[in-house]
Amino acid sequence: MILTIHRYVVARVPRYSVSHDSQKTWLLHVYGVQEEDRGYYMCQVNTNPMISQVGYLQVVVPPNIIDEESTQSSVAVREQQNITLTCKAEGFPRPKITWRREDGQSIGIDKRKKGKQTVFFSFRFRTINF
Fold first, then answer.
1. ∠ CA 127-129-130 to the nearest 5 degrees?
2. How far is CA 9 from CA 32, 54, 56, 71, 106, in A?
3. Domain boundaries, the chain
4. Taking burial as the number of CB atoms within 10 A of a residue's CB, which of 73, 92, 96, 112 is the most buried?
5. Between 5 and 112, whose confidence is greater?
6. Tens digits of per-residue pLDDT, 89-121?
7. 27 CB contacts (<8 Å, ≥6 apart)?
8. Residues with Cβ < 8 Å from 101, sequence gap 6 or more?
9. Nearest-angstrom CA–CA distance, 109 and 119
């Protein structure tokens, strides 16, 4: 998709603008960068032969725990019952999720599922004492 030609923004996206500080330096401005802006951008000079320079825009999305799909912060269960605690997080690059107990004891993880940019972890306790 052509975004600009000289100073004119062709793409009808108000978040793009072009400026230049001299006849040799042109700047593409992207305001309010979003995850979907990730990708390759090319500056093309229409000479004979045509020359261009390509750059990749990497958009970093901070990790975030999705509260409505994660286990509540306090859960009660009877001894000898099983429980599954869920932590769902998203971000780019994919966040690394680790489970730990407050007292430092290790936790054995039974199952690990990965989504595209969402990581799911669940585990089962044999016994939880409250």
1. 145
2. 17, 19, 20, 47, 56
3. 4-57, 62-122
4. 92
5. 5
6. 899 999 988 888 888 777 766 555 444 334 444
7. 18, 19, 20, 21
8. 107
9. 14
Give the pLDDT confidence score for residue 117 in this predicted structure: 38
Q: Which fold, 4-57?
A: Immunoglobulin-like (2.60.40)
Q: Is this model's pTM higher than 0.85 or not?
A: no
Please report, rounded to a whole number, the percentage of residues in the chain having pLDDT higher than 90.
20
At which residue do the structure tokens 């306790």 appear?
A: 125
The residue ranking higher by pLDDT, 34 or 20, is: 34
71-88 burial, b at 16+ Cβ within 10 Å, e below that, comes to: eeeeeeeeeeeeeebebb
The C-alpha atoms of residue 79 and residue 93 are separated, in whole angstroms, by 38
Q: Which of 82, 85, 76 is nearest to 120 (CA)?
A: 85
The rounded distance, in Å, linking the Cα atoms of 67 and 70 is 5
SS3 at position 9: strand
| Residue labelled with tokens 């936790």 | 107
